[in-house]
């Protein structure tokens, strides 16, 4: 693998689905490692959080590079590698003539990918792949912190 390749592992999810959600990403280039995460107090969906992880990771890159992006979401991998060009060609409608769900995030992911040379890989979740497990724990952290912020914000509105 070239030293210029950035390897990214991503994950996202909700508890429950739909509900509060979080996303996580691990970016590696040579010896450099960056961990990222975030969340939404909801309601959001597993699919939206799975999309946010690679979007945020790719948008964090400061110059065009080759990227090997690993996700445990077949929705994300198939969407960006197989379906998105057809959706775009069909005015963001599915083959069943229904509006594409999460179109805002698909468009954002497409734009982020256009800045780099991205190769997509699917990995089995919860299978002991270290950076996938780390991305999963970061996503959980993002979810918990988003819920905590929203709860704290609600209590801040209550007068003592």
UniProtKB/TrEMBL annotation:
A single cellular component GO annotation: cytoplasm
Domain RNase H type-1: 2-144
Co-factor remark: Binds 1 Mg(2+) ion per subunit. May bind a second metal ion at a regulatory site, or after substrate binding.
Binding site for Mg(2+) 2: 11, 136
InterPro entries: RNase_H, RNaseH-like_sf, RNaseH_domain, RNaseH_sf, RNaseHI
Enzyme class: hydrolase
Catalytic activity: Endonucleolytic cleavage to 5'-phosphomonoester
Keyword annotations: Cytoplasm, Endonuclease, Hydrolase, Magnesium, Metal-binding, Nuclease
Statement: the UniProt record of this protein carries the keyword Cytoplasm: yes
GO molecular function, a single term: magnesium ion binding
Pfam families: RNase_H
Keyword Coiled coil: no
Cell location: Cytoplasm
Documented EC number(s): 3.1.26.4
Annotated binding of Mg(2+) 1, by residue: 11, 50, 72
Family named by the database record: Belongs to the RNase H family.
Cited PANTHER family: RIBONUCLEASE H1
Function: Endonuclease that specifically degrades the RNA of RNA-DNA hybrids.
Self-association and partners: Monomer.
Entry protein name: Ribonuclease H
Phylogenetic lineage: Bacteria, Bacillati, Actinomycetota, Actinomycetes, Mycobacteriales
